[in-house]
């Protein structure tokens, strides 16, 4: 085959010759015919013409032939490809020269179909590609295309490679006006514009401020990793001075790892609940966690200060974050419910991970649990020495939300400062006529008598409850029994709960 270049050159041509009259100074009434009375005609029009030339290339095997370059002063217009032995040229043999200086006129149909800008994305999500026609030769600010995405992407990893020029990140504007990773939830249409750095999805799915955000918690290597995907929050005033809110987006997912040893005040083998917070943290949001049953205000009306989390994070009344934060607004974003055989060793996956939007969205029972602790235990077959204050060991727990009661020592140890009430009873087998006293010890010292009787009427039981008792975190309470004779208990109960 051989390629012929149809090239064009411009030329000026004088035309329309006319015998023109000229002024005759010797005889003004008799003009000259032609210049100097030479009788010759002169052109009266100058026309611009285009000279077309077919410039032959070098014959070569079909597909390997090349198109000649335009001659000096010429511009290439079309290429005519002719196969060996061909006797007729058809429209299929003619194509536009790549550098032809034609300006394509856009008709209304092309405008309506966005023929030059609307294209189907290719590639494999999240690495999308786009092949516009004609292809762009370089990225430039303001380039905009109508892109049909055919598959869901991965938020934070979505890219677009236009005309093979290299992948650029796909972003979208968050509710606060900052650029955040674009969300491609599935097949969708959107204008996408290059801003000189990234490709911006201008018709994103709605990702406004929400009281509920997706939350995940995964146990691995005896640690628990909590993840919050990119999103936006509106925080209360950082100064508490007015009702103004501050908008903030986290462009990347937020993560926090609760390491091995960090019990957050939860007990062995007991169900616990972890509250997950998103901190404003001076404009760089981060996650925080705390024991939902501890004394922590989760109303979002105040500011919180946190402690950097580590293996020693064992307090139920402390909020922990990756790095310590002081006086920060926060949002409550979820709860994690879990039960671990050994508190602080996250060997099992959570039984429930839920999103939340502040304490107002919680059930009353959950709010009550966040303010109170309680326990109940039973025991039997304990020997009692005569005339001795004996610690009663109730060695079977019925409940203990915060893991505060020890079945080996009979001690209830307060996790949080507050006001508590306790109740107990014992039932003996001795019928000896003697004094019986049921007591409460606080930190190893007798503080309250629940009941005192003098009875020998067969098997004797004694029971009672306390007045409200103020305890500090770390104080421990035990139930003691005094009997003026030896005895063997065949039943006992000890319980308590925090009332404020």
Automatic annotation (TrEMBL):
Domain named C1q: residues: 368-500
Ranges in a coiled coil: none
Highest taxon in the source lineage: Bacteria
Membrane-spanning residues: none
Gene3D superfamilies tied to this protein: 2.60.120.40
Pfam family, one: C1q
Name recorded for this polypeptide: C1q domain-containing protein
